[in-house]
Design goal:
heterodimer, A: 9% strand, B: 266 residues, 8-stranded mixed β-sheet, 8 strands, globular
Chain lengths: 87, 266
């Protein structure tokens, strides 16, 4: 999607955008046969390991499998001056 | 030159496989090709009624496989065009009456006698589907622009790739251009991006399909409706013609209409 298209599409996603995102996600699991359960376990293990060295934000951790089968781990570090978060 | 066996399949049921098979068969025959259409949906025979040939069935696919009759005897000639034949499914048997090896043999015979044999696959991923693709040279996957149908199509693509028949090509059926425009239906681009296979054609939602099915007259015989044109374009692409993708936008904007007029035609 071009930057301009993104700009215009910001706010409320249309139902077709929602459909596309849901499909992409479900197909990732279908294609690699990775269940949400296994994904959660991978997350836990990652957090356990990395936490030995760094302060990680477990809630912000995201794992995605791209269409061309790359596993991308996005692991935000907890801020030192931990601002109070709601929830 | 031996003919080509093309299986039309989908994963999800009711997305338009039988409609597509009947019309592509008819359209190819209209273009002078020798065509056989085969109903591989054993126990749920349907291609015969969609084509309006249900009253002329004597033998069926299972009779051929079991040696009750010869292939030629089971083929019903469609008199509305020159060289179009239907091989009906058995209605009172189930899919275990035919094996993939049987289908490979039948396809081998069809290849010798026809330019194209189109096989109408049952829904699902079980034996009926396995039978339908066993003898195929190529596979066409039909989907609608809906989450469940696209998901099932993805599964089918995986299966036919595993059998080295893939990746196949894609037909998107029942597209509603105004819903796409409103952002309430997956677009052609969305579906193609997700499934990542070659797009063979787009068929719009069209009431004329229901009417033609009521009558047992494949819609391409009537010609001018949007779905008929889309199906004819697909048939011509199968024959190797380079036909630009059907653009289902009817109430298109002034500029695209202008562009189309300048370019000429559809
Ligand atoms: N483009 C279209 N516009 C309107 N109606 C359509 C269109 N394509 C198919 N249909 C209708 O959808 C219904 C299902 O079509 P069809 O029987 O061809 O699907 P199928 O995939 O063969 O189903 P099954 O999985 O049960 O074999 C039919 O009533 C048909 O008339
Ligand atoms: Mg059918």
């Amino acid at each position: 999607m071009s930057a301009i298209a993104k700009l215009f599409k910001r706010k409320q996603p249309t139902s077709s955008q929602v459909a596309k995102e849901r499909l992409q996600l479900v197909l990732i699991h279908d294609r690699v046969k990775l269940s949400p359960d296994v994904l959660e376990r991978i997350k836990d293990d990652l957090v356990t390991t990395i936490s030995k060295y760094l302060d990680i934000d477990r809630e912000g951790l995201q794992i995605t499998l791209t269409q061309n089968k790359r596993l991308i781990v996005d692991m935000p570090l907890r801020e030192r001056s931990a601002r109070k978060r709601s929830g | 030159m031996p003919g080509k066996v093309i299986t039309i399949t989908s994963g999800k049921g009711g997305v338009g496989k039988t409609t597509v098979t009947a019309n592509l068969g008819m359209a190819l025959a209209q273009h002078g090709q020798r065509v056989a259409v085969v109903d591989a949906d054993i126990g749920l025979r349907n291609l015969d009624v969609v084509m309006g040939l249900e009253n002329r069935i004597v033998y069926d696919l299972v009779d051929v496989v079991e040696g009750v009759c010869r292939l030629r005897q089971a083929l019903i000639r469609d008199r509305r065009v020159n060289e179009l034949y239907l091989l009906p499914a058995a209605q009172t048997r189930d899919k275990t009456a035919v094996s993939p090896a049987d289908m490979i043999q039948v396809c081998e015979q069809l290849r010798r006698e026809f330019d194209y044999a189109l096989i109408d696959s049952p829904a699902g991923i079980e034996q009926g589907f396995q039978n339908a693709v066993a003898g195929a040279d190529e596979v066409i996957i039909v989907t609608t622009p809906e989450v469940s149908a696209v998901r099932d199509a993805d599964r089918i693509i995986g299966l036919i790739e595993a059998q080295e028949k893939g990746p196949g090509s894609l037909i998107i059926n029942r597209l509603k251009p105004d819903m796409v425009r409103r952002g309430d239906m997956l677009s052609t681009e969305d579906v193609v991006e997700i499934l990542a296979i070659k797009l063979l054609g787009i068929i719009p939602e069209d009431e004329a399909i229901v009417i033609s099915t009521n009558r047992g007259t494949p819609i391409v015989l009537d010609g001018r409706s949007p779905a008929a044109q889309a199906l004819d374009n697909i048939a011509r692409r199968i024959m190797g013609e380079d036909i630009p993708m059907y653009q289902p936008a009817r109430e298109e904007g002034f500029f695209s209409r202008l562009a189309r007029m300048v370019r000429g035609g559809d």
